[in-house]
Amino acid sequence: xxxxxxxxxxxxxxxxxxxxxxxxxxxxxxxxxxxxxxxxxxxxxxxxxxxxxxxxxxxxxxxxxxxxxxxxxxxxxxxxxxxxxxxxxxxxxxxxxxxxxx
Length: 102
Fold this sequence. Notes:
Helix content: over 70%
Distance between the termini: 42 Å
Number of strands: 0
Strand content: under 5%
Number of helices: 4
Low-confidence stretches: none
Shape: elongated
Radius of gyration: 17 Å
């Protein structure tokens, strides 16, 4: 498990707590901060999962594919925001592809 996944879980928990306290006290600023922390936690978790998956793929990949997988892993580590954006776009596309059009 990567540090990003641990940090993401911590942000998610603190966000839920802030949001809950904000709901109880009627503090909209605290509610918004809590929601932001929850989203940030989910993004960090998604990024950490991508890193974990790429590490697993690099270990299991055939010899001729190990270098491209390691290149992707290096890119993901150097550009976490871009990687998270790519993951979000792919998730959006995959979620939309399962819907039936009428």
